[in-house]
Structure formats: C-alpha cells, structure tokens
C-alpha cells in the first residue's frame, strides 16, 4: 500500500514538472501570480513611455572635492520622473529620462577644472544610480555619447560616411563611427582622432589630479591618445527625424552632460615643443527652435583643463544630468500603449 502511494506521489511530481517545461517567459511571469501580465520587452519599442517609479527621496550628494565647484550638489528622486525606452537588447529594456534632471535646489550640475575631468564620469553615474532604486531596476548610469549614436542608428552613419560595418561588434561600429565624425565633421578643422602623442615642454605637462586643491600637478604625458570629436550638429549634418532627436536630446530645450570624456592634442602641427593637451567632456545641446525643429541639436565638447594651465578660471560649466536605468529581463507590464498619455505600467 505504501509503495502504491509513493508511486502516485512520484507520478504527480513528474506531471507538475513536465507542465512547467517549455513555458515562455511571459507564462513563467504569470505563474508568479501576475495572471494578466506580459513581459515588458515583448510589448515596447524604442522611444515608448514607461511608468517606472524611482521611489521618493533617494539621494546622492556630489562633493565639491570631486567637482572643483565651490559647493556640494545634491540630487533627489521624486517618483515623478518621466521615462522612455532607450534600448531593448536580448530582452533587457533600458530606460532614460525624457528630459535632463537638476539638483534638489533646481540648479544644473556644475563642474570646474582638472578634478572635474577625473571625476565627472563616476559622479554622473553615481547620481544616476539613485534612479535605479525602483521596482524591477537592476542598475543606473548617465547617458553617454555612444547612446546617442545608437539612437540615431548605425545604418545612418554607415550610409552617410560610406562605412563598412558588416561583421563588426557594436563596440567596433561605434569606434568607426566616432572616427568618421571626428575626421569628416563638415564644420571642423582637421583632427588627430586615434593618434598617440607626447608632451615634451615642461611648462605644458600639467595633468588633472585629485591630490591637491588646484586639481592639477606636473605629470607623465608620454603617451596620450587623442579621442576628440568636434561639435557635431546632428540635425544639420546627420538626421532630421524628430522622433529620434526627441529621444536623443529631450523635449525641454535644456542641455545635459554626457558621461564621455576626451583628450585633444593642441599646438603647432610640426612643432613638438609647442604640443599641449585639452582635457574635457561632452554635453548634448537640445537646440530646439521656436519652429519646433531640433535645428541646433548637437553633441559638443567642453574643455575642463588645458595642460599649459591657460584660462583655468573659465573652465566652469553647468548642465543637466540624464539618468539611464536598466530593468530586469523579467519585468512585467500590466497595461498601457506606450504613449506619454498612456505609458506602459509595470505594477
């Protein structure tokens, strides 16, 4: 009798196990009690609106010791941020705020000098990470130069600059596109993108540093790589598709930092003794005109320090922050159509 009962139990367990096999990710989500839900990745497209809630009062204070600015700057989540789909990769949905974020006192984020160059990427990402504390989020960071390239589309650049991007990884595609932007920018002078250079003149060998209040010290400048891309007016030279431009640059006519830095070679082309370096970061200019077109939208370099210490007092700038949040692959959606008025709702 006991053997018979045991056999029945084993058969029951086997049946239950088999009925769970072969289920789609949506069905697995439903098994957890979300009976009317589907996976977000199966519903959304790039540019759609999603009702993601960051939670209230998550905060981060960016210290003046990191920024070179005269005071600390604090950011706080409100739970009222508006989010759009930045990308969908292998079922993972990544969101970006519709528009730039400001400090808790409604000011832009300010940086100055060599400390800014060293810390801006980490600080932008730390600020943006507080927006990843909501349900289903796995990580947060700030928007980058590469993100804008992806929004515009590899094919657009391939056609414009006659690039062969076939059989290339995404990283290789972006490198080729950046080189094309640097060397073919219609409004720029010739650049040295991708070339290595050294600085021999001792007066020109200052490098960014966190080790003193000034933000610079005499340092090693034997092997620097130029990765500078001149200001690129995307609307004028690349695309005029407003759906892509609104996702890339926002809708608020406000500028924002990109978590991408650069080094640029300066000085007379054939005079090694005059060589110096620019250290800087990129920011995005929304550039929306009164006619509603993104006529002046551009990705622009901003110099934070020059290795011969020229113009140090003028190396201060303030822009917004554009958080990016990565969602869990199994994030469910219960309703919505993806418009701003009717965003996809997660829970």
What would the keywords be for this entry?
single chain, 347 residues, alpha+beta, 6-stranded mixed sheet, 4-stranded antiparallel sheet, 9 helices, 20 strands, 26% helix, disordered N terminus
Describe the structure.
By secondary structure, this protein is α+β, with helices and mostly antiparallel strands. It has helices at residues 2-20, 25-31, 64-67, 113-129, 145-152, 154-161, 170-184, 234-237, 242-249, and strands at residues 38-39, 49-51, 59-62, 73-76, 83-89, 92-97, 109-112, 137-142, 196-197, 206-208, 216-218, 224-225, 232-233, 256-266, 276-285, 298-306, 316-319, 323-327, 332-333, 344-345. A hairpin with a 7-residue loop joins strand 10 and strand 11. Helices cover 26% and strands 26% of the residues. The chain has one domain (38-345).
Let me know the largest β-sheet. Answer: 6 strands, mixed
Through-space gap between termini: 49 Å
The chain-level structural class is alpha+beta
User: What share of the residues does DSSP label as strand, in percent?
Assistant: 25-35%
- The figure for the number of domains is 1
User: pLDDT average, as an integer?
Assistant: 87
Strand order of the largest sheet: 8-18-6-5-2-20
Order of helices and strands: HHEEEHEEEEHEHHHEEEEEHHEEEEEEE
- The total count of strands amounts to 20
The radius of gyration computed from the alpha-carbon positions, rounded to a whole number of angstroms, is: 25 Å
Number of helices: 9
Overall geometry: globular
Unreliable residue stretches: 1-35
Helix content: 25-40%
